[in-house]
Amino acid sequence: MTRRLTLTVPTSLLLPVVLLSCTLVSAEEPRDPIPRGGGRLKNHWATCVISMKSGHIAGIWDNISGRRLVQESFETYRLTTRDGKTITISEKDDRVHSAISTAPPPNRPRWGNQTAYFARNPKIPGSEIRKSYYFALIGEEQRIVCRSVSITAPTEQATLFTSVSHTVLAPRFRKDSLYHYVVPQGVAGDQRPLIRSSQITKPLIRRDHSNDRQGRAASDIFQPKWKVGLSQYLYRVGRHWVYPVGLRNPTHWTDNGWQIASGGFFLADKSENKRTNRLEMRYHIYGEDRLAVHEEYLGLPELTKIRNDTQQKLRLEKIRTPGTPTRFLRPGDRVPSASLINIGSGGKGQFRYGVYATSDESRLEQISPTNSKKVVLSLTGKQLKERFAQQRKKNPASMGGMYIYRRHESPVLIEHLDWLASRTPNGLVNLRPLKEVFEFETRGIVAESDYLGTGVFYWDAALDAGQVDWGRRTVSQTQSAIDRWKMLFEALHQRDKLLWTNSRTGSAYYDITYYEASGAQKIAGKSWRDAADMDLMNKIYQVPGTIHVPLYWWNNGPDENTQTYQNHCLALALSPRDGAWSREVDGKLPESADDGVLFEVIDEFRNARFVRIGLKPAWWNDLKTRIEAYTLQLGPTWFLNVISHRKKP
C-alpha cells in the first residue's frame, strides 16, 4: 500500500539547505595518483589527462575525492558508403601534429583551461581532425569534462561517419558500483535500468527503443561507498543539443566499462567549411546522491530553454487526465481522448500521406501493408465528422482527437518529389525534415481538427532524429524534430487544442504523453528497484505542468501488477490509465477496471514535483533498504509517500 502524508509549510518559513558536490574520502585512504606526462585539462574539481600521441582521453580524476574514474576513453570511427561497405578505425591510430591551450580567466581561480589537439589518421586519407577539451558549468562548478571531435576528409562518394565511444572505467571505481541508464521507452531484451557491476560479465545491450539497433547514448555509474558518480552522454552534434541516441550503432555495458553509441554526419572536405561535422561527448562528475546527475543535466542551458518554453505555453488548468469518468467532472472540465482511425496499428496498413479530412467529400484510405493497390479501409470526412459528433453528444466534456498512421505514398508526393527521402518496397515513405514539409503537415492537421471539431491530436512519435539522406548528404538531428514539434504544438494551442504524444523520456513541446515503460511492466529479473527507477525517471524528466501517463500491458489478467501500477502513480503523481490488454481472454479483450477514484485523487496534485530534501533511507542510494519513499512538493504543500517492500511474516 502507498501511504501519503500531507504537510503544509508556511511560505514565510525559511528552510536552510546545504548543498554538497562530493564527499571526501577518509584520510587513511590514499588518493589515486595522476601520472606525469600527457596533456592536461584541469580545474579545482576534475583532471583529464590526454594522450599526446593520439589525443584520446588517458584518464579522468575527481579532484575532490581524489579518485580516478576513467582509465581511458577513445572512439571507434565507422565510415560507411551507400552500398553498405563499412571500415572501422580506432582513434588510437590518430597522430597528433600540434596542440594549443588557453588559460582560465584570471578572476576565476578554480576554473580550468581549454585545449585543442590537431591530428590526422593515416587510415583516412586527407583527414584533418580537431579534438577540443573544455569544461561545462553546473552552477559555479566545472564538473563536466567536454570532448568535441570534428573531422574532415575528401571523399569520392558519400561517406557516413559514425562513432562509438569505448570507455574503460578505473577498476577500483567500477568495483561494487551500480550501473544505470534511463529506460526511454519500452525496449526489447533486458530492460533493467539498474545492474550491479559484478553482474555485468559480458556485453549487455542498452537500446533506446523497442528492438532498434540504435543504442541509448547515455549511461551513468555510481560508487555508493565513495558517493561519487560519473555519467557519459552525447550532448551535441554540430552546434545543437541532441537527444541522446546513437546513430546506427548499439550501446553496451561491458565487464570493464561501456561502449556508448555516438552521433554521425557525412564526411566533408575541409574547404566546404561545414559546421555540422562535430560530436560532443560529456563526462559528468557528481556526488552524494545518485539522482543529482539527472537534475543537473536537465538544468543545462539547452535543456532549460526548451523545457521552460514548453511549460510557459501550457494551458491545462481545466484539463483532466484522459479516461477520467464523467461522475468526477466539475463544470468546465474537459477530458482528452484519442480515437484510433486505422484498422489495427500502423503495422496493418497506413493511410495515404498528406490527405486530411477537411470536408465532407474528403476520402482517407488505409492501404494494405502487403499490396499497395488494396484499400483495407476507406472513410469520408463526413463519416469521421459524424463519429466525433456522436462522441461529443455522449460526453460533452470529451476533447476527441485523431490517432492515425499516415505514411503511405500518395498523389501529394507526385507534386513534391523533393520532399521524399526514401520509399520502402511496400509504399511507405520517409520525408525529408524540411520546413515546408512541417508547414504542410501543420496546416493539414489543424484544418482537419477544425473541420472535425476535435480538441486533440495524438502523435505516435519521438523527439529523436537520425534520418540519413544519402541524396543530399545530410543527417537529420534533434533540432529538426524540435522545430517540427514546436510548430505543431504552437499551432494547435492557437486553436485551444492539445498535442498528445507517445514519446520518450526527455521530450519537449507536448501537453500529454504516454510513457511506454511503466515500472509495472513484467520483465524477467526486474526488481522493485528497477520498477521504481523507471517511473521515477519518468517523473524527473517530465516537463512541469504536463500530463504523463505511464503504460504497461496486461497479459494474463486484470490483477496482474495492478497494485504496483497504482502505487507508483499515486506516489509520484503520475496520471493513471487502466491497463492496456494485449491478450484475449475467452476470445475477447476484457473490460478494464474502473479506477475513477485514482484519477480524481491524482488530478488534485499531479503538478507536484519530486524533490530531494534529505529523506532517509533514500532507496536510490541505500541498496539495503526495503522502504521506497518519495517527497513531492506542490506550492507550500509537501507530500511524503511511502511503499514498503518488506516481506510479510
Any overview of this molecule?
By secondary structure, the chain is α+β, with helices and mostly antiparallel strands. It has a domain at 39-299: Distorted Sandwich (Beta-galactosidase, Chain A, domain 5). It is built from 9 helices and 40 strands. Strands 7, 8, 9, 10, 12, 13, 15, 16, 17 and 20 form a 10-stranded antiparallel β-sheet that branches. Strands 2, 3, 4, 5, 6, 11, 14, 18 and 19 form a 9-stranded antiparallel β-sheet that branches. A hairpin with a 4-residue loop joins strand 4 and strand 5 (67-81). The longest helix has 18 residues, at 435-452.
Count every beta strand, where a strand is a DSSP E run of 2 or more residues.
40
Tally the helices: 9
Overall average pLDDT? 90
Proportion of residues in extended strands = 25-35%
CA-CA gap between termini: 16 Å
- Poorly predicted regions are 3-26
Whole-angstrom Rg: 26 Å
Helix content: 10-25%
Instruction: Assign the structural class, choosing from mainly alpha, mainly beta, alpha/beta, alpha+beta, or little secondary structure.
Output: alpha+beta
| Reported CATH architecture of the domain at 39-299 | Distorted Sandwich
- What oligomerization state is this entry in? single chain
> Tell me, what's the shape?
globular
Major sheet size, sense and barrel closure: 10 strands, antiparallel
CATH class of the domain at 39-299: Mainly Beta
CATH fold descriptor of the domain at 39-299: Beta-galactosidase, Chain A, domain 5
Which characteristics define this entry?
649 residues, alpha+beta, Beta-galactosidase, Chain A, domain 5, 10-stranded antiparallel beta sheet, 9-stranded antiparallel beta sheet, 9 helices, 33% strand, disordered N terminus
